[in-house]
Amino acid sequence: MAMLIEFAGIDGCGKTTQANLLHKGLLSKGIASEIIPSSQKPLSDKILEEINENGPYSIKAICSLSAANDYFWSKSVKQDCTFYILDRYIHTSIAAYLAMSQDRGWILRLYQNIPMPEIILLLDLPSNLALQRKAYMTDPYEEGSSTIYRGANYSGFMDYQSRVRESYLMLAEINPLFCRLNAIAPAKDLETCISEIIQDKFCLS
User: Fold this and answer.
1) Is 34 in contact with 82 (CB distance < 8 Å)?
2) Tens of pLDDT, residues 50-78
3) Counted domains in the chain
């Protein structure tokens, strides 16, 4: 049976780095693993192309497209792969749209028929440190820009990502699937911590 491991956190927190490290670590132990970045989901390219050519779109419209993307990806899951490591999944979108003041009940209903992960590894990092890690290079999606999201009103990366972080922390308080990790820690220490968590969670030898 396939197991879904979700990496979550604001942009620049280290999701991609740690997802890749976990993937390589599992493979080195002979454990079947597949890593799924958001760009490899079935609708990602078409959604980005549509928004870039014809946007901005309403926040609800983009939220619905994100949910559809995760739903169609979930239909492709093969049961012969032990672990799917998801670099951004359901809760990435949920936190983002909560940060945009969308109704929590509506968002959760939108995602209710999409398979939940077995664990959500939340890499928690303040937005100012995330911006430093990104060498102050950001894009309109990471800034919650009104050029992407019609009606959005944020003053840049730190403003938007701080609100996204608050949404993640709220979700972590109410959802026991969340495992909050201090992403300020050195990457190697975080890798070791995540490896131990996954070993304990799934009883890996």
Assistant:
1) no
2) 998 998 999 999 999 999 999 999 998 88
3) 1
Which residue has tokens 């992403």? 183
How far is the C-alpha of 155 from the C-alpha of 201, rounded, in Å? 40
Q: Within a 10 A sphere around the Cβ of 13, how many other Cβ atoms?
A: 26
Cβ–Cβ under 8 Å, residues 9 and 125: yes
Going 203 to 118 to 177 to 23, the CA torsion angle's sign is: positive
**What CATH number is associated with residue 188?**
3.40.50.300
pLDDT-based confidence at residue 81 (cuts at 50, 70, 90): confident
Q: What are phi and psi of 190, to 5 degrees?
A: -65, -40
- Domain extent for 170: 3-202
* Measured distance CA(154)–CA(84) in Å, rounded: 34
Angstrom distance (rounded) from CA 46 to CA 64: 14
pLDDT value of residue 134: 95
Q: Are β-strands 3-8 and 119-124 bridged in parallel, bridged antiparallel, or unpaired? A: parallel
**Structure token digits, residue 142:** 């990471």
> For residue 73, how many other CB atoms are within 10 A of its CB?
21
Dig out the tokens for 205 from the structure: 């030898």
pTM of the model: 0.95
